[in-house]
Amino acid sequence: MVPKSALRKISPIVWEIPRSYRSDMRVPARVYASQSMLEHILLDRSLEQLVNVATLPGIRKYALAMPDVHEGYGFPVGGVAAFDMDEGIISPGGIGYDINCGVRLLLSALTKSEVAGRNAEIGKTIYREVPSGVGKGGMLKLDLKEIDAVLRDGAERMISLGYGFPEDLERIESGGKLPPADASCVSEHAKSRGADQLGTMGSGNHFVEVEYVSAIYDEAEAQRMGLFRHQICVMIHTGSRGLGHQVATDYIRMMNRSLASFGFSLPDRELACAPFRSHEGQSYWKAMSAAANFAWANRQLITWEIREAWKRVFGAAESLDLLYDVAHNIAKIEAYMLDGEKKNLVVHRKGATRAFPGQPVLIPGSMGTGSYVLSDCQHAMEASFGSSCHGAGRTMSRTKARRETDASELLRELSEKGIAVQAGSKAGLAEEAPAAYKDVDEVVSVVTGSGIAKKVARLKPLAVIKG
Fold first, then answer.
1. How buried is residue 167: exposed, middle or buried, by Cβ count under 10 Å (0-12/13-18/19+)?
2. Which of 84, 356, 392, 452 could be a cystine partner for 437, CB 3.0 to 4.6 Å?
3. What is the set of domains in the chain, with CATH numbers?
4. Cβ atoms within 10 A of the Cβ of 295, count?
């Protein structure tokens, strides 16, 4: 554990562990957190993991932790790190097992008063349309040729098959497709795991949530995005399912076998990595890009399923427009100013959301509490490699949450708040209890207070659909 005495206070909500803390650190480790949040962060291994990240070859400027940080695999969840393309590495642990887990927000023209009393009906209809749960298959069953096309073209492939509109692609990070993708770098086992999982939500913290805009903080920005008070929206949170998990598993094993040949001495084998320019690094880069494309295709097909459900409930005249889709487990090549020179870096975001100029930043909260739409601040490009938090962030393990949560009582509490719940199991519901997460309002306050992003709107839930 990193002691509190090791942290240097940069501002009331920015803290730094200097390079001098440990002899193998190449850069400082920087944490965004309020005083009260910091006390909790110090209780797990997340800052120790962040220090470990700061030792990796080719890391630039600093290793970063967003305010929703918590212990993860290798890198902490909520971690951001940028690596030189020539001297640096790429690490599956810096992206996570659920490659391109991300969030998508759909906007309707309906208001809260117009859907009053229909929360349960909406939730049940979406639940029937969007398969959810561990290993649950969807409506499409892909052969190897078809899955290769999805891995290559991402959301674009779904549009070509009729599951959406061309304008959807304009509102997805990277257009819903990473060109480095190479299906040949994805194992047959990974492909088989994904063959029937397009259009499915999965389990864990993944969800579909029907929400309404409860507050507007920036009228001009909200208007630009098409948001208005009491507007009904639908948020989707899921990723690359079993395919992405298998890609991570395959390459973590490969990289661990190759560490000696790279000459790396890592403080934690969970940081398994390869030089970005190496054969292993490039193979993973292409496989990760393919899995990211699969995730964008998945959220696109789920969008089509929800649009179909929406028509069944409200009629064919009512539509759902895509505001934005953003990844929060991914690596991207991006350009930043370093020492007066613009450099392309391999930016790892694990549980962190890109916050680029002109782009909505989508921050889901814990179940039943609410979510945020933020917009960029230029400061993020200078301070955090264009990154923000990705959600509330866990404070409690799933095992502990199940042990300490009465699922029936949780359902009653949510019902009293006017929130309809559709869930595959009470155990799965208990794992995602609000008490297992940080306060999303405080997390967002740290992000906005640091100048990384600014608040545009807050959303409150009306119906929650989970695996």
1. exposed
2. 392
3. 4-466 (3.90.1860.10)
4. 29
Contact 133, 252 (CB under 8 A): no
Please state, in angstroms and rounded to a whole number, the distance separating the CA atoms of residues 449 and 32: 10
pLDDT tens by residue, 163-204? 999 999 999 999 999 999 999 999 999 999 999 999 999 988
Beta bridge partners of 30: 16, 64
Hunting for tokens 């560490």 — which residue is that? Answer: 259
- pLDDT over threshold 90, residue 450: yes
Q: What is the pLDDT of residues 196-226, one digit of tens each?
A: 999 999 988 899 999 999 999 999 999 999 9
Report the interhelical angle of 241-262 vs 279-314 (nearest 10°). Answer: 170
User: What would the two tokens of residue 414 be?
Assistant: 């949510």
Closest C-alpha among 105, 120, 117 to residue 411? 120
- Quick check: 374 and 358 in contact, CB under 8 A? no
Strands (E), 160-286: 207-216, 231-238, 274-275
Token readout for 74 is 């290798």
Annotated active-site positions, please? 390
Q: Under a CB-based contact definition with an 8 Å cutoff, are residues 404 and 361 in contact?
A: no
What are the structure tokens assigned to 185, written together?
């770098």
Tokens of 64: 């970063």
Taking each helix axis from N to C end, the angle separating 144-153 and 279-314, rounded to the nearest 10 degrees, works out to 90
**pTM above the 0.85 mark?**
yes
Sign (positive or negative) of CA dihedral 278, 99, 356, 32: negative
Beta-sheet pairing, 341-350 with 329-338:
antiparallel
Distance of CA 94 to the CA centre of its chain: 13
- pLDDT band at 349, cuts 50/70/90? very high
In sequence order, the β-bridge partners of residue 210 are: 234, 463
pLDDT tens digit string along 147-161?
999 999 999 999 999
C-alpha–C-alpha distance, residues 362 and 324, integer Å: 8
